[in-house]
Amino acid sequence: MVSGSARETGQRAGQRRVTATIGDVATAAGVSRATVSRVMNGRSTVDAAIAERVREAAAGLSYRPSNAARSLALGRTQTVALVVPDLGNPVFQQILRGVMDGAAEDGYRVLVADTVEDDQQEGAIALEARMRCDALVLVSPRIGDAELSALIADVEPVVLVNRETGGAAPSLVVDYEDAALQVVQHLVSLGHRRIVYLGGPVRSASDELRRAGLARAQKLHADLEILDLPAGPDIQAGHLAAPAVLATRATAAVAFNDLVAFGLLAGLNEAGVAVPADISVAGFDDIELSRYATPALTTVAVPQAELGRHAWRELHAVIDDDAHPASSARFTPSLEVRGSTGPVRQGPERVHITDDDVAPVRREEIPTVPPTAAPAWSVPADPDTDAVMLTCGDGLELVRRDAGGRMPKVHARRPYLHPVHTLAGVPLTDVSPVDHRHHYGVGIAVPDVNGTSHWGGRTFIEDVGPTLLKNHGRQTSEGIRVDAAPDSRPVGAGAEAGEVLVEDVLWSDEHGEPQLREERRITARLLPQAPGSAAAPGWVLDWRSTLHADHGPLEIRSPATNGRPGAGYGGLFWRLPIAESTSVLSAAGTGENRAHGSSSPWVAFVQRQGGRSTTLLLVQPGQVRPWFLRSAEYPGACPALAWDAPLLVPAGGSVQLDLVAVLLDTELTSAAAAALAADLTDGGQR
Predict the structure, then answer these.
(1) What is the DSSP letter of 352?
(2) How far apart are the first and last CA of the chain?
(3) CA–CA distance, 508 with 395 (Å, rounded to integer)
(4) How far is CA 538 from CA 428, 430, 522, in A?
(5) What is the rounded average pLDDT of the residues 677-682?
(6) What is the DSSP string of 564-613?
(7) What is the pLDDT of residue 20?
(8) Between the CA of residue 40 and those of 56, 211, 318, what are the distances in Å?
């Protein structure tokens, strides 16, 4: 027979284990229960030798103190609560992490209460949280000073983060006043003198500190203007504020925090506004995602997790010693300069460098594909949702046509071609690039048709500058088909014309009222094979559109005609991708400055990327209009419809747009480009 208790002699197989009690530990150590309790609670009033004997007995019996009993005995829950205005804010998440890390080391758990930016309920939520725990950490409370003082008296012990209390409780404060001053000093050093501030929550104490810093900056710089826009604390607030920011004509924007800055960046991006080239953007806090934004966000770094750890140290000291004097700590943030801020743009135009002296690129063999058939169009059952495609040979895709229905409204929805490939598969178009989000491949984009923008982004207003207006029109396909090639149309260079993609496009204004009808015809063909070669050296895209003023007279304008010299863009626009190197050829000479504004019948972009050379030759086969062309800022060009004067089309009249493009997987010289352009136009007779 086995005698004795299970805790003394072990347990039989299958028996439930009996948990040791404080009485068992007291009996084994030869002390009272009170002595065991004092040792287990870490009190220093027990003799060291006795305390060691108690701990050995507890370890031998695998004794674990009961948290519930301990809480009842001590009047504590070993739990604290963190009250935040918005747990979705990464700053508050990091403060929580810091509090939790510190509390865990001392045997405490952390509850979280989110007031969702509701200052009317903040006090009640804090009181309820305090009833469930031993102490509070109040982070960025929104209630007024009088209410806060009363709340502190009701919920002590408490520590505040991002709010000073006048000594009523320990507080940790980030010096956002100095942070704001740092941001503005940085922007002033870049030449900015008109800055807009996107304000935070109305009752935010840290917002008031930021404003104090902005006021200090204005006193230091007499020529500095700081405008104020109400926004809020989150991404949506920044996104909604984008049009108002642009309307201020400010060259830099400072957001209440990084989240607001993210929303603003998104709104500017959708509007086709380049950051920092058009406007600089800065935030506060340096949350983790800031360095990964596009562009990376300039911000002021706050030690978020350290704030939480420090808050716990203060709170723990107050819990253990009710007489602990209230203290205040101030944290000074540091400026992190990244890609979202830059110098103020000088003059009405960006500076465009010339590439007259660009070294010639080494000639290479032309990578070609032997065609087995002429280029052919395929139209899906629903061309509004599925792409129309141009293929060649054994399924080689040359072009996709997109209806533009997924474009943001602010980009002026319109049908366009993208990607457009060379025969070797190199794309020579770009869509919604970072520098100009409203650029879409190849299409007809016009900034001002009777006041409506079919270009996208901002509209240039004389004496005001680029301004985001609600004036974006839409081009809608009303029918698309493929016709056989016309036999009577000469195409030059001895090639046969391919099928014709015919599309009827209705242009409507921002109210949906029709403005004009476009008849669009696009053909494609291979260049003839060179003697002894089994492959075509390239291919030709031929675009002809006729704009009919069926709904009344048309006045087509550009920023140049509205007071911005040289900005005569608008027409059949081709946007190329940015490459490692881009040089421009034309009959007017080599370089962007020679081609831009010239009446050269052709221009060519010679690009090199990843060891490959390509050439895009653009030819005006009929009426030659001045070229709007860029290569340094971005590669793109169009024959300008309104270069230096508005284009007026009477009711019932029409205007024709023609462009022939040659895509080659090699580098052309100026002489070769001129000769090929002449062949394609057949002396201007097509």
Answers:
(1) -
(2) 116
(3) 36
(4) 13, 20, 17
(5) 82
(6) -TT----EEEEEPPP-SEEEEEETT-SSHHHHTT---SEEEEEEEETTEE
(7) 81
(8) 12, 51, 21
